[in-house]
Amino acid sequence: MDPVVEVVALFLGFLGWVMVGITIPNRYWKVSTVDGNVITTSTIYENLWMSCATDSTGVHNCREFPSLLALSGYVQASRALMIASVVMGAFGIVATMIGMQCCRVGGENLTMKGRLAGTGGAFFLLQGLCTMISVSWYAFNITQVFFDPLYPGTKYELGEALYIGWCSAILAICGGSCLLCACKVGRDDTSPYPYRNTNGTVYSLGAQSQRKTGSTYDKNAYV
């Protein structure tokens, strides 16, 4: 594997992992819309853990969701997927760093290092998929309620955290794909090794076997 590809893939995966850590505590997963409102006295915004409100004077109050089981199913699933994304990203970073050729950890076994780097790429892919599913599912529920004309409650729009999450997923998927596509766990040598005798003449293994079996003689020599 090209060391440059390893470094680029590790950088993309690490950057995606950091952005996941920024996305999770961000408060602006969804923000109350001002569409159709003449006067807006307060802005409500939520994430996976709490709901906050800011009035026109700039004072804001936040409260955590009191019960996990009382939350909507997509919020619970998004929580689990984002936590799984952080764990997968951590495993991917460790496996990729050990599998890099410039890293002395793990010895000089390039085959084993290639497998570790490929494993790190798989973890980065899982990280990106978990983040993408979580963020997209959350955004789908927001848009579904927003375009429902019969919904009586507060409608929301997509917050900045969702866009950060999408960028994080794309970076992680790109890093994992680079590692998996460029990783070579082994090499098969199909060409025969040359043979050099004592007087300096070079023969291939095929020519050497022919000389031993006498297959180079003409058929007339046996008559």
Question: What is the compact description of this entry?
Answer:
This protein has 223 residues and is α+β, with helices and mostly antiparallel strands. The chain has helices at 3-23, 73-99, 110-146, 160-182, 205-213, and strands spanning 30-32, 42-46, 50-55, 60-64, 156-158, 195-196, 202-203.
What does the model show?
It is a multi-pass membrane protein. The chain crosses the membrane at residues 7-24, 80-100, 121-140, 160-183. One of its GO terms (biological process) is tube formation. It comes from Paramormyrops kingsleyae. Belongs to the claudin family. By secondary structure, the protein is an alpha+beta fold. It folds into 2 domains: 3-182, Butyryl-CoA Dehydrogenase, subunit A, domain 3 (Up-down Bundle); 192-223, no CATH class. The protein has 5 helices and 7 strands, in the order H-E-E-E-E-H-H-E-H-E-E-H. Strands 4-3-2-1-5 form a 5-stranded antiparallel beta sheet. Strands 6-7 form a two-stranded antiparallel sheet. Strand 6 (195-196) and strand 7 form a beta hairpin. The longest helix is centred in the middle third of the chain and has 37 residues, at 110-146. It is elongated.
Supply database-style keywords.
2 domains; Butyryl-CoA Dehydrogenase, subunit A, domain 3; elongated; alpha+beta; Claudin; single chain; five-stranded antiparallel sheet; 223 residues; cell junction; 52% helix
